[in-house]
Structure formats: structure tokens, C-alpha cells
Design a protein that fits this description.
Elements: E1 5-14, E2 17-27, E3 30-36, E4 43-44, E5 48-52, E6 54-59, H1 76-89, H2 94-107, E7 110-117, E8 133-139, H3 144-157, E9 165-170, H4 178-191, E10 195-199, H5 203-211, H6 215-222, H7 237-244, E11 250-254, H8 260-267, E12 272-276, H9 278-283, H10 291-296, E13 300-303, H11 316-326, H12 332-347, E14 357-358, E15 361-365, H13 368-371, E16 384-390, E17 393-397, H14 399-402
Parallel strand pairs: 1-4, 1-5, 6-7, 7-8, 8-9, 10-11, 11-12, 12-13
Antiparallel strand pairs: 1-2, 2-3, 3-14, 5-15, 15-16, 16-17
Helix pairs in contact: 3-4, 11-12
The structure holds zinc ion (ZN).
Residues 58, 60, 198, 253, 306 line the site of zinc ion.
Amino acid sequence: MNDVQCYHVEWLVCSDQSRSDVTLQLRDGLVISIEPGRTADAIELGPVAMVEGLVNVHTHLEFSGLKEPIPTTGRFTDWIRNVVKYRRENPELTSAAISAGIEESWQSGTTIVGEIATVGWSAADYAKADFKGTIFQEVLGLSPERIQQQTKLAGSRLTGKSIYSRGISPHAPYSTHLDLVRQSVEISLRTNCPLAMHLAETKPEIELLGAGTGEFREMLIDFGIWSGTQFQTPLKPMDYLEVLAKAPRSLIIHGNYLDDTELKFLASQPQMTLVYCPRTHAAFGHSKHPWRRLMELGGQVAVGTDSRASNPDLSLFAELQFLAARHPDLSQRDLLQIGSRNGRLALGFEPHSGTRIPADFTLIRLADSARRSPYPELFDPANRVFGTMVNGRWVWLAPDLANQS
Ligand SMILES: [Zn+2]
């Protein structure tokens, strides 16, 4: 059994409770007591909020080596072509990029990651002590042969022991036949794993599904994977939602162009979560995102950074600051819920609730203005991440705190 650790903090903030001036006792990755005031053996962490750990439900760590995003201002398929080109030209960078991405996630306060892994990765890439997250094996293909091969791949990635949990990611409607999505759902039902799929991301995707035309058709022809028989029957994102709804849990990535009928359907499915990537959404200049509409309807929303191919960094904290600045009417509690609790639930991790509190925390140094609020303004632009704790261990601490703890 591990030793007990004690910390005094100005605030403890979880989605279902917030308390000021408390000492936490931690042992074996759990909070075992919360006492008012400071106990004699407590380490003083200063003017900070110890916050239910942030969860980045959607990223692709293989692109973490990019210094700046791939330009997002042209046609969407130009961006995809450049992403594919980068991956082809840099296959040897994958392991180092994953490692750098995990470090960057920790340094920006993220405790749990929803990661999409494609090819060329190994379990060793994620074998860092204290890495916590779900690795979704990406599958994609439009031809019957490819569907068979990718179904096998997904099945093989879900067996064996690992320290992280696993899932499957049918990539997107323009790259992944609906039959492969159905096969992925079958596997998820057999293995009780979650699914994640990019859906309704762009207007050209909606056009391809509805009419079989547009820039995606051109791209598929150029890639040599257009058979002429695909996309003959008009489809809508709803056709994919209905299939994904059968999985034990599914994450709908982006959903930028879901219509109101589709949002109402999502809201009626508590096992489904819409993943909003705010700064990536803004970088592509999409129409207004429907996340608030889904919240009004009672649906689940969680937040992701997407990758460094479309975002300048992997900071979930920065995503929440971005949202706080643009949605001042939304409470800090609601923002924390979509940035933490909803992500834990979507990925299948135990939430911080009731008496059992997992010791996954983001330590936020509060600016004076943020401290004056009865509930601290967690995502004030002057606040910064000061530490990240996963399973009761500090995976990162700001240098001035590291010596103390
Ligand atoms: Zn993505």
C-alpha cells in the first residue's frame, strides 16, 4: 500500500462539488478524505484550485511533432491531402510524436486522452507509467476486400493486456463504408469497447453522401479508390448515427453540420457523446457549431483539441479558456463538466462523484480576479496550469512547486 499524501489547496473543484480551504488526503490513486482547513502534515500548494482532471477526448498524437498546423484556409480536401502527404513522408516520427504529445498533454493539465491511432504504432509508444486514456484503432476503407482486412485489424487490436483502454474508430463517411462501421459496431458489442467516428464535419462531406459529387469525389478518384458504385444511394449523417447508436458507447467527432433532427436523435441516446473541438472548428471557419443546441436538448457534449495538424497545441485548458471568453453566459461549472466529467464518462472512466473520488486532478493557479469569485473563475485568461496528477501521482508540476512536493 502506498503512503498517504496530504495537500492543502485554496479550492477543490469537481463537477458535483466545490469547497474552499481544504486538505485532501490521497492514497492508492483515490481521495480518502477531505478536511476543512490545513492539517499539520499537509503540503501547501498555494492559491490554486485542485480541479477534477481535464479530459481531451479527441486527438491524434502522431501529429504532435508538427511545429505549426497544416494550413486550414483552403478546401478541406486540400488539408486532407496534405495530412496524408505528411504521414507518408514522416513514418519514422510516429513514436517520438506520440511521446511528445503525451508530455505536452500533461504539461497543459490533461489527465486522460482519447487518442486515434492509425498505422505504425506499438503498445510500447503508450507504455509510459501513468498514461491514462483510450486508444482507438482507426479503420477505414471503401472496398469489400479492405473492409474485411480492416475488420480483422480492429479485432486484433482489442485483444491482449494493456495499461490503457481500447476502442475502434471508423474514420469518416468519405473514407469508411457504412458496412465497415456496422462491423466495428459488432466488435464493440462483443468486446464492450467504445467507438469514435468523425461525422458531419464539412459541407462537402454532406454533398458526397447526398449526391456522390464534389471535392471528396475528386479526391477519392485521385487516390485511386473511387469505384463508381459508391455513394449511389443518398445517405445522411443520420444513417451513420443510427448504426453508431447500437454500440455500448460512441463518440461523434465534430458533428459540425448535424441538422436539428439528428441533434434530437443524439440527445435521446445517453450512450452517445458529441465531441466539439473549438479551436479546430474555428480554424476551418465552419458555420456555428451546434454544441449549445445539443446541451439545451439534454445531450452529452465533451471537448477535444484534435491534433496539431489543425491546432497550435494540445491544451484542453486552452480550449476551455477559448470557450469561456466566447460564452460568458455559460457557467464555469458547465464548462468544467464538458471538459472533464463528460469526457470521463464518454471514454468509460469512473467520474468524480459521491464519496469515491479518483485522484486525477488538474492544478490551476488562480489569478487574483479569479479567486474573488464565490466559485473560482477557472478558465480566466490569466490562470495557468500548475500541475497534473494521474492516479495519485504528479505527472507534471510547475518548476516552483516541484521542489516542495
Ligand atoms: Zn480528428
